[in-house]
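Bumping with the actual sequence this time:
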Amino acid sequence: MSELAHKIIIITAPSGAGKTSITRYLLDKYPGKLAFSVSAATRSPRSYEQDGTDYYFLSLDNFKQKIQHNEFVEWEMVYEGKYYGTLKSELERIWKAGKTPLLDIEVKGAIHIREQYPDTTLALFIEPPSVDELRRRLENRGTETVESLLARVNKASYELSFKHHFDQIIVNDDLNKACKEAEAAIDAFVGLQ
């Protein structure tokens, strides 16, 4: 295994701040060096999502069984009854392939991983220009009910209070600029060039 094998890169942000867009950019830029860490989730897949590619879609019972067997490096109930987590086996799969795992995960999960791997994790916090802009982005997705939109905006305000727990804060007021900032931070950490 290469010296890069046990490093971890985390992209975290409130929902709608752009972490998935930045993650996709980085994976496209470095397909031979970075690999997407597929999270486990108990929610139903969206029409465009595939099991094992976007998430490992698990039943609530299966997810709880994996918690009991200590199979997660981090997990949390993100919304009422909706659990998300990073499986230890997923990180091992990527490390064995000689790549660095790139995690697109929730803020609390990112903090848990940084605590467990403090010397080998780079955690980037993607900040929206404002909560109002975040609300507009979520509304434009067209996937939220009034209730879920309110829950996501309230959660985002709370998550923003944790931004100083991360290695770098990247304000996503221009997606191309934010992608380049993330690329520079990761290159300095892992040496992708």
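The tokens above came from a reply further down the thread. The helical segments are 19-29, 60-68, 88-96, 107-116, 131-141, 146-160, 175-190.
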